């Protein structure tokens, strides 16, 4: 296998890690003012992601850095063309981190309520925009012969792109509900469990429509099979939640997100950014990549440090594995 293909697959793995882990963070952020009826309940909800949200966010930084190093032409076209959308994403991610950290700096209920609202908005925006961005990447965007993006923000807000945004938003909301059912006790857990099925059914309709549309445009036999497996995993997760097997329900929603990303990357390959202007202008794993020497060094570094990072993050989740209640925080 060529190193360009290896790094295309590794970047897909990084996005899987980001969407699976940060996905429930986004869901919890949006749901916090809805499921938390009182200040102690909202505080308990945020404690479920408090020890891990910043570590989860690192995955997107690594994905961006890997794209820059392995496929600089892809990075340049993507970040220059999607500049305004990515700027909005960055502002939302910064606001989200500030809201989590600042809400407890004062005991005023009004102060905390305002930060909770900002947290919900700042979680909603990236949950929507990531889907819009990836939908457009898979479908193709206007790129000229000089590898420059020739559209604007409104070019991305097409029906397919918006459906992609609704897909990630609804998937993350369901993932967040399942996570809260797994990580909380008492009334919060019951509320989350009650919402999983209705929200999940809406999510299933949206996600199936999006994956079918995406694969109908650029899909392969493999991407269709993976999309079908994602649908089966989602149904299995909803069924597990119905019988209060929250751990299996969480695995089901996590596997669904992972397989959905695999389906999109499989449909995309060997392109990394198709051109809707002229297929000859498309960026591929070959014409957008770094030199073989650069990819070789990156591969050695990844082999050494990736297991260390995974072990550390796994240890963090193990330490904070217990449920959270309104009366007490999670303990190891």
What do you see in this structure?
By secondary structure, the chain is mainly alpha-helical. It has one domain (3-319): Up-down Bundle (Formate dehydrogenase/DMSO reductase fold). The chain is 78% helix and 2% strand. The chain has twelve helices and two strands, in the order αααααααααααββα. The chain has helices at residues 3-35, 39-49, 53-70, 72-81, 83-102, 109-139, 153-156, 159-183, 186-218, 221-242, 246-268, 292-319, and strands spanning 271-273, 283-284. It has a two-stranded antiparallel sheet with strand order 1-2. Helix 1 (3-35) runs antiparallel to helix 2 (39-49), helix 9 runs antiparallel to helix 10 (221-242) and helix 9 packs parallel to helix 11 (246-268).
Largest sheet: 2 strands, antiparallel
Give the total of beta strands.
Answer: 2
Number of domains: 1
Span between termini: 43 Å
One letter per element, helices H and strands E, the order comes to HHHHHHHHHHHEEH
State the CATH topology: Formate dehydrogenase/DMSO reductase fold
The proportion of strand residues reads under 5%
Q: Radius of gyration, Cα only, in angstroms?
A: 20 Å
Q: Which regions have little confidence, pLDDT < 50, spanning 5+ residues?
A: none
State the share of residues found in helices, binned by percent.
over 70%
């Amino acid at each position: 296998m060529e190193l360009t293909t290896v790094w295309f697959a590794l970047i897909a793995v990084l996005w899987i890690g980001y969407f699976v882990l940060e996905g429930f963070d986004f869901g919890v952020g949006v749901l916090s003012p809805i499921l938390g009826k009182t200040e102690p309940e909202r505080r308990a909800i945020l404690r479920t992601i408090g020890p891990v949200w910043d570590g989860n966010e690192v995955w997107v930084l690594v994905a961006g850095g890997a794209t820059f190093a392995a496929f600089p032409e892809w990075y340049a076209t993507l970040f220059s063309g999607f500049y305004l959308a990515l700027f909005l994403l960055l502002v939302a991610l910064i606001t989200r981190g500030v809201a989590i950290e600042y809400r407890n700096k004062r005991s005023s209920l009004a102060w905390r309520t305002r930060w909770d609202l900002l947290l919900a908005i700042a979680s909603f925006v990236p949950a929507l925009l990531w889907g819009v961005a990836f939908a457009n990447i898979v479908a193709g965007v206007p790129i000229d012969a000089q590898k420059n993006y020739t559209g604007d923000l409104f070019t991305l807000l097409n029906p397919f792109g918006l459906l992609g945004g609704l897909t990630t938003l609804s998937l993350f909301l369901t993932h967040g509900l399942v996570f809260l059912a797994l990580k909380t006790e008492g009334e919060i857990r019951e509320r989350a469990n009650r919402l999983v099925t209705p929200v999940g059914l809406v999510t299933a309709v949206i996600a199936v429509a999006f994956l079918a549309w995406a694969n109908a445009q650029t899909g392969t036999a493999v991407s269709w099979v993976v999309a079908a497996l994602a649908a089966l995993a989602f149904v299995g997760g909803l069924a597990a939640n119905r019988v209060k097997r929250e751990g299996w329900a969480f695995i089901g929603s996590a596997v669904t997100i992972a397989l959905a990303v695999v389906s999109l990357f499989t449909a995309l390959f060997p392109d990394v950014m198709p051109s809707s202007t002229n297929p000859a202008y498309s960026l591929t794993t070959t014409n957008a990549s770094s030199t073989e020497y650069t990819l070789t060094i990156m591969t050695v570094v990844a082999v050494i440090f990736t297991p260390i990072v995974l072990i550390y993050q796994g240890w963090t989740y193990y330490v904070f594995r217990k449920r959270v209640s309104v009366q007490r925080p999670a303990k190891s």
